[in-house]
Amino acid sequence: MKDFTVTVRKVTDEELMRSACEMTFLGKSSQSLLSIYKSEHSPVRTQMFWVELKNIPLASSTHILRHHVGSTPYQLSCRDDRNGGYNHFPDRITNIVEMINAGELENAIDELNWLKDNADRQTPVNLGLFLNAQSLIDMSKLRLCSQAHKETLTIFQALKAKIAEVDPSLASVMVRKCVYRGGICGEPRCCGFNSTEAFKKELGDYLSNFSDKQRGIHYQKQ
User: Fold this and answer.
1) What pLDDT sits at residue 100?
2) Exposed end of the chain (fewer CB within 10 Å): N or C?
3) Is the dihedral of CA 11, 13, 19, 22 positive or negative?
């Protein structure tokens, strides 16, 4: 897991987004990427990205694959009759035999218990995603959540950091669901993050993208 890599290439640009906007009215668009990301109007989907996640656990790849709207995945096959993913099961069995021969029975049992629960889900795979900005915004609500699996959360945090390098406006609106909803948790059991100082900081950073009028403050002052 520590050896996974993330790369992001942005395929389209702000000019294309404005061209899409200009198809919907007569005139020139002055929309910025941030304004279209905040509104989530349809031209948000003109912003396309190619993402490569390499050497990630099969389980985490499966979590990310669930977000199929606006995202086309290309995952490394795990077929044994192709040059696919390999879960290192035979290598671990060899290690267990060596532990037993060395009298390290407790270590061997620990390794067997780990294999029982993790052999398949930890198979390292590569995952490519061709996806749009709206899909990334939607993925973030669940995969940046504290209740996401810790490995998937780590991968998605790394992905957001890479998005920030090519499109900082998009990264600034890629937030967990409780931040997106202003404090409301959509999970059956809330983790409590929405009552922490860290939540207030994240919410403040997110809200800084929006004007006083968008936040309702403009009307409160009148």
Assistant:
1) 85
2) C
3) positive
User: Whose CA is closest to 134, among 41, 203, 35?
Assistant: 41
Alpha-carbon span 64 to 75, nearest angstrom: 11
pLDDT the model gives residue 28: 97
Output the DSSP codes for 36-103: HHHHT-GGGGG-EEEEEEEEEEHHHHHHHHT--TTEEEEE----TTTT-----HHHHHHHHHHHHHTT
What CA–CA distance (Å, rounded) separates 217 from 210? 11
Bridge partners of residue 130, in order along the sequence: 50, 72
Q: Any idea what DSSP says for residue 121?
A: T
Per the structure block, which two tokens stand in for 200?
A: 């207030």
Phi-psi category of residue 82: left, alpha or beta, with phi > 0 → left and psi -120 to 50 → alpha: beta
Per-residue model confidence (pLDDT) at position 119: 58
Task: Give the pLDDT score at 83.
Answer: 64
How crowded is residue 104: how many other Cβ atoms within 10 Å of its Cβ?
Answer: 14
Place of tokens 């207030």: 200
Q: How far apart are CA 147 and CA 142, in angstroms?
A: 8
Per the document, the length of the chain is 222
For the chain, which ranges sit under pLDDT 50?
none
pLDDT the model gives residue 124: 84
Question: HEC profile for 159-212?
Answer: HHHHHHHHCHHHHHCCCCHHHHCCCCCCCCCCCCHHHCHHHHHHHHHHHCCCCH
For the chain, what is the mean pLDDT?
Answer: 89
